[in-house]
Amino acid sequence: MDAIVKSFPGKDQDEKDARPSQSEVEAAVRTLLLWVGDDPDREGLVDTPKRVAKAYKDLFGGYDEDPEDVLGRTFEEVAGYDDMVLVRDIPFFSHCEHHMVPIIGKAHVAYLPDGKVLGLSKIARVIDIYARRLQTQESMTAQVSKAIDETLRPLGVAVMIEAEHMCMAMRGIRKQGSTTLTTTFTGQFKTDPHQQARFMTMLRSHNGH
Ligand SMILES: Nc1nc2c(ncn2[C@@H]2O[C@H](COP(=O)(O)OP(=O)(O)OP(=O)(O)O)[C@@H](O)[C@H]2O)c(=O)[nH]1
Ligand SMILES: [Zn+2]
Fold first, then answer.
1. Do the annotations mark residue 167 as ligand-binding?
2. Least enclosed by CB within 10 Å: which of 34, 84, 92, 163?
3. Rounded to two decimals, what is the model's pTM?
4. Residues with CB under 6 A from ligand 1
5. Which of 92, 95, 98 has most ligand 1 atoms within 8 Å of CB, for mutation?
6. Which ligand places an atom closest to the C-alpha of 136?
7. 57-84: per-residue pLDDT in tens?
8. Distance CA 108, CA 196 (A)
9. Cα separation, 81 vs 50, whole angstroms
10. What is the C-alpha radius of gyration for the chain, rounded to an integer number of angstroms?
11. Distance between the two ends of the chain, CA-based, in angstroms?
């Protein structure tokens, strides 16, 4: 878990103190408004730098959150249940680290408990913590799987993310509707093709394919 905390940019107090001030952020947004060719002093835009800063705090709130806090709360009283737990179709919004435009997708997360289970909402919370940072889909998939693997220590974790990247849809190549799929498997999901196949079958049965 140490590695996750250490690689977590918002966690360190010195780094936090080194963040730009509110007025610096607002000035940066004002520069962007000028740069795109608009007038930051017209009525509709005069409060926009402040609004954008507030929106960014929300959209990128994941830098101030630690997945370990969420995943640390587990329980064991599940009447001996020891089979797969799958939470599928968890919707998320993220932003790509290359263009800072949205990634819109769904995550599917499964694990094989080793005595302990997680509150179901905690899996969705972890998705949100990583989604609310600048991401590549590959990193986000690997980070979610690593956080669950290292904190819960289950017999295996499977993460699949399906997403559309607005940087491919709205700009650049301008291809709308394509979906990127990424997966990470650990433990038995990685070593046992049968477990991996069950994960895929459970996902497919839902999607009606
Ligand atoms: N692997 C991966 N690539 C991504 C992701 N999000 C965006 N990209 C890609 O990152 C690449 C950045 O390519 P560059 O050539 O540096 O940037 P660019 O000139 O804006 O590229 P174009 O998007 O092709 O116009 C693009 O191919 C994007 O499609 C992601 O989550 N994973
Ligand atoms: Zn992009």
1. yes
2. 34
3. 0.89
4. 96, 98, 136-138, 165, 167-168, 172-173
5. 98
6. 1
7. 999 999 999 999 999 889 888 888 889 9
8. 13
9. 50
10. 20
11. 37
